[in-house]
Specification:
165 residues, alpha+beta, six-stranded mixed β-sheet, three-stranded antiparallel β-sheet, 3 helices
């Protein structure tokens, strides 16, 4: 289940054009899948070994919901059939430099995925493992944005209001 190669992606082409030193906007998504037991789907990233939720960059011609469906499918083999946005992460506090020395200001929309089709793939082009884990026993090392995303999902579930940051 090959996704778009980084060099061919919109963000990859933009980074190549802008060079390594400019801060770019990174428009993307995060997908939170909880199974019937309340276990969280995590993937282990191939590039840094961190456990995280499926996430990635939007491509030209997509809307954020389509991006969430594509990213979850590419990284897990599961295709979301129902999802709800619950948080947006924007602004200068969401600026970071990745392991390649590239700096991005995030504009991410987080979605809760309520239902999906397909079979979980533990390994893909972008992942080396995947599985559903109890919330009180998540594997390490974990992505630094995972706790905030889960807390924002709890806030959304309690208030019914989109969390804007």
């Amino acid at each position: 289940m090959a996704g778009i190669a980084w060099a061919d992606s919109y963000l990859g082409r933009l980074r190549a054009s802008a060079g390594d030193h400019d801060t770019l906007l990174f428009v993307g998504v995060r997908g939170v899948l909880l199974d019937e037991r309340g276990h969280l789907l995590l993937i282990r990233r191939r590039d840094n070994g961190h456990w995280t939720i499926p996430a990635g960059a939007m491509e030209l011609g997509e809307n954020v919901a389509e991006c969430a469906v594509r990213e979850v499918w590419e990284e897990t083999g599961l295709r979301p059939t129902s999802l709800t946005p619950f948080a947006m992460y924007t602004g200068p506090t969401y600026t970071h430099t990745n392991m390649y020395g590239h700096t991005y200001q995030l504009f991410h929309t987080a979605f809760q995925v309520h239902s999906w089709d397909g079979e979980l793939r533990r390994e893909t082009d972008e992942t080396v493992d995947a599985g559903f884990f109890p919330l009180d026993a998540l594997p390490a090392p974990a992505s630094p944005f995972l706790p905030e995303t889960l807390e924002d999902l709890r806030t959304f579930a309690h208030t019914g209001r989109l969390v804007l940051k």
